[in-house]
């Protein structure tokens, strides 16, 4: 009786710890968000970028985007809220909009096209995955001495 009760408490303790770990994994999941203020084509429709969009998260401006610019911020969790100050034309008064998003769990680096988001398009129109551009390292020219003979790495370090 005593052993079965002890085993039951151990199993319950492990289950509670696993539940806490799963909840913390979802709640503490970090995302890097990239904000684009770029015009785009979607289903034959042209979405024009406004003159400027200021992105505020938690009352702090994290990006000031003119047309064809990108800004970034990080977010912990699956929900994201921001305020956008949108200036359509150069001398217009800015209009403020509050936006709340549910971030995809499976993507770390998310690009959000703000003009498409503001048009109310589907998620697949304004969400995309950020893929960094990989640059090939420049091929170094071989070092030669005063006689035109190629130096080895050891000889280069000797001067």
Can you count the beta strands? 10
The arrangement of helices and strands along the chain is: HEEEEEEEEEHHEH
The amount of beta strand, in percent, is 35-45%
What class do helices, strands and sheet pairing give? Answer: alpha+beta
Structure description:
The chain is α+β, with helices and mostly antiparallel strands and about 160 residues long. The chain has a domain at about 30-130: Immunoglobulin-like. It is about 25% helix and about 40% strand. The chain has 4 helices and 10 strands, in the order H-E-E-E-E-E-E-E-E-E-H-H-E-H. The radius of gyration is 26 Å and the shape is flat.
Give a summary of the structure in a few sentences.
This protein has 159 residues and is of the alpha+beta class. It has helices at residues 2-27, 114-118, 123-126, 153-158; strands at residues 30-37, 40-42, 45-47, 52-57, 60-66, 69-76, 79-87, 95-102, 109-113, 127-129.
